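Entry:
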Amino acid sequence: MQLLLVEDDPTMQATLHRALTRKGMQVTAVGDGHAALNRWAQMQPDAVVLDLTLPGLDGLQVLEQARSRGLRAPVLILTARGTVGDRVVGLNAGADDYLPKPFDLDELEARLRALQRRQAGAATPTDARSSTQQIGAVRYDRESGALYLNGEVMELTPRELALMHALLAQPGHAVTKERLYGLVFPGQLDVQFEAIEVVVYRLRKKLAGTGLTLMTLRGLGYLLRADT
């Protein structure tokens, strides 16, 4: 992955550059908004990690100008501004994901890999006639709704199966807890909202060893990821 890292804090920039390089990414780091726009246009990165508080142009101005120039690389905003309002503004400006500081480096990597897979999937047309979907060692038969692991039907409860169907409908994308609750417990107003976490916990245990990881993305929901 060719990654453009836009972060003005020297310590943070050095830490992220070192950590992401160790994870196999080719990282180009810049520390101000004008340099970010220039490097973005020159290198055409696979993804951009963008801080909002920057000298010259702030992160939102960089993002808006990049999108107006047709620069389409997916953007993950990384910032200490963690309110819902700031998140909405960033996403409306053209960001694809948002991670507030402080954060976990493994979660940052997972989100960047998800953005890369989403971009690759958008560039590769899918065969609408295909009735099956393979992810990790699990095969999903869309017509029957069944899930198979190494050729054998997976033993899932109806709620676990509904959760899998919801996640497989958007592979590589985070699905909000609210949406999952509505799909797993449709019309069941007497069921507590936190019950979705119990279903997630049980399904996560059953997915161990399948090549799939059910990830919790703070503030966004859940994501089903194929292990690499």
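The helical segments are 10-22, 33-43, 59-68, 84-92, 105-123, 158-168, 177-184, 195-206.
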